Inverse folding.
């Protein structure tokens, strides 16, 4: 929010000579700079944040697949996932949300369709009827992703988090600029002219929005330290490392496969085991295994407050025996971890969790987000009108000359309230539009069949194919770069995956099965690997795939790593 300098008692007094910068005036300068220079980006983030509060409810109104009619009893969450997987046998489900906190909302799982696009499959939690599927980037989800990332590759989260810090700085400097602010909570805005009215209204709404500004400022600043400083610059983390998911041992898998090809337990049985061990835990999320050494991860809540559905108690379950191999409970977290997990529900207004209070809290956050958006826009308008008034006082020319001069004052690189930063805003807006187009395409088409395509070849008794892309938002860039990383999508049918214990990818032929490469993982229909490339690549470098079966047999196949126009094709 931007505080304008007007008459007493609304603004700090500054001597005409400005021989000494007072604390109030310095705070005002900082407040104006922070609030004005990235106004366009800030307004987008604030407006989409206000709308994102109701992103789930918005989608619920638009997509009938999401709506459930409340009944007395819900089916076992694992049985719901089993039914969804049966309805989509060739597309593995890699994320399942029970929607326990929202009785009117169907449960859903995420999957990748045959074309490579991300979708949500919906199922009625009371009747078990599969309701169909919707695109991942629904209208509500689109708004949420735009708010969180601006669809800017790599730096989007960092930019949004930085704006959270700017909000906190604006709050502190605004209070320093506006002494004894508590006297003016009920002062009516003056109506002498538009600029004065906007200035008074800006202050009044800013005062009544202090709570939401403080919430967004603190949570955004917390995330800003983690991303980019911890993530990219190696700063010491302010949160202890979370427990990592344990993997099944090779000896364990060897003993399981001694009697033939093993079958994972139904998810219903996995959930029953968890509910028997933790009867008070509400199951919110089920993450199925992505490879044969990966356990089920069940995420739930045992009555803890300020936890999102996605984070909480984490129970790891052996997919073949049903044994609980690890349990990471919210009660056992460090204080910094618990604080970190509380940031999301506090920031997004989801801490009321369910029922009428959930909608009431979200309504307050929605209004607060709109108020903050008004503060960003009104601050820019106030500054623009002040600049325009100053120009009119100085210039003693005709009306036409005044308009030309005023327009040039705004458009010139150093002119206008935003100064040279206006062009940084425009460049970012162009990046947002480009990223939005790419994201919408990826949501429906994915990355299958793009980049470098490795045509179908024999892998023992089966057929395998693959394609390499530089990244989700960089699928049109060269995917193979020395010392870089490529995303390799691997296609095998379900019959092959049932027989194969592990499958690996490597640049260059493996010297032995002790170092076959990097493990390929992911659900059925979405097997992939993030493959690190050597620092030096030869012209005849090859991509190798190695498969090891439950019976101990191994099979290998290879392609030219770079396009040769035959088996490896550049499909960009």
């Amino acid at each position: 929010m931007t505080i304008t300098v007007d008459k007493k008692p609304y603004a700090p007094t500054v001597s005409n000579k400005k021989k000494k910068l007072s604390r109030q005036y310095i705070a005002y300068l900082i407040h104006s700079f922070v609030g004005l220079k990235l106004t366009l980006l800030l307004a987008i983030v604030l407006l989409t944040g206000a709308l994102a509060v109701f992103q789930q409810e918005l989608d619920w109104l638009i997509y009938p697949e999401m709506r459930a009619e409340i009944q007395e009893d819900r089916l076992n969450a694992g049985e719901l996932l089993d039914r969804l997987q049966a309805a989509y046998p060739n597309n593995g489900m890699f994320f399942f949300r029970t929607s326990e906190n929202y009785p009117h909302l169907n449960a859903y799982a995420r999957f990748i369709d045959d074309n490579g696009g991300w979708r949500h499959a919906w199922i009625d939690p009371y009747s078990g009827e599969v309701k169909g599927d919707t695109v991942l980037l629904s209208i509500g989800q689109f708004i949420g992703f735009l708010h969180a990332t601006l669809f800017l590759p790599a730096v989007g989260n960092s930019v949004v988090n930085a704006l959270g810090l700017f909000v906190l700085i604006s709050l502190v400097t605004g209070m320093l600029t506006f002494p004894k602010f508590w006297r003016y909570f009920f002062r009516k805005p003056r109506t002498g002219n538009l600029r004065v009215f906007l200035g008074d209204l800006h202050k009044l709404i800013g005062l009544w929005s202090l709570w939401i500004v403080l919430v967004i400022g603190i949570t955004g600043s917390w995330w800003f330290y983690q991303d980019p400083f911890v993530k990219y610059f190696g700063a010491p983390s302010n949160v202890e490392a979370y427990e990592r998911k344990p993997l099944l041992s090779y000896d364990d898998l060897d003993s399981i496969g001694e009697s033939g090809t093993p079958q994972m337990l139904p998810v219903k049985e996995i959930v029953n085991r968890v509910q028997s061990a933790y009867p008070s835990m509400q199951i919110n999320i089920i993450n199925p295994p992505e490879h044969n050494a990966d356990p089920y991860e069940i995420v739930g809540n045992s009555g803890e407050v300020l936890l999102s559905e996605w984070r909480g108690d984490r129970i790891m379950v052996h997919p073949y025996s049903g044994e609980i191999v690890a349990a990471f409970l919210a009660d056992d977290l460090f204080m910094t971890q618990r604080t970190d997990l509380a940031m999301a529900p506090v920031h997004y207004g989801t801490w009321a969790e369910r029922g009428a209070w959930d909608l009431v809290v979200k309504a307050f956050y929605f209004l607060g987000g709109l108020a903050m958006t008004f503060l960003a826009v009104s601050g820019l308008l106030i500054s623009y009108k002040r600049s325009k008034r100053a120009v009119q006082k100085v210039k003693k020319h005709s009306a036409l000359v005044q308009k030309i001069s005023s327009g040039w004052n705004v458009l010139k690189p150093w002119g206008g309230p935003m100064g040279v930063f206006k062009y940084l805003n425009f460049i970012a807006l162009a990046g947002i539009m480009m990223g939005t187009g790419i994201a919408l395409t990826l949501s429906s088409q994915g990355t299958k069949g793009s980049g470098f395509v490795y045509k179908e070849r024999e892998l023992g008794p089966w057929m395998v194919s693959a394609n390499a892309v530089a990244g989700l938002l960089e699928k049109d860039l060269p995917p193979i770069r020395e010392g870089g990383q490529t995303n390799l999508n691997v296609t095998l049918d379900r019959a092959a995956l049932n027989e194969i214990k592990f499958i690996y990818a490597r640049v260059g032929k493996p010297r032995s099965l002790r170092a076959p490469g990097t493990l390929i993982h992911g659900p059925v229909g979405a097997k992939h690997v993030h493959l690190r490339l050597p620092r030096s690549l030869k012209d005849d470098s090859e991509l190798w795939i190695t498969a090891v079966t439950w019976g101990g047999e191994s099979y290998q196949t290879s392609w030219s790593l770079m396009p040769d126009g035959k088996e490896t094709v550049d499909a960009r």
Notes: The chain has 15 helices and 17 strands. The chain has four domains: 23-53+145-237+354-391, 64-137, 250-333, 452-570. The domain at 452-570 is CATH 2.60.40 (Immunoglobulin-like). Residues 129 and 373 are 42 Å apart (CA to CA).
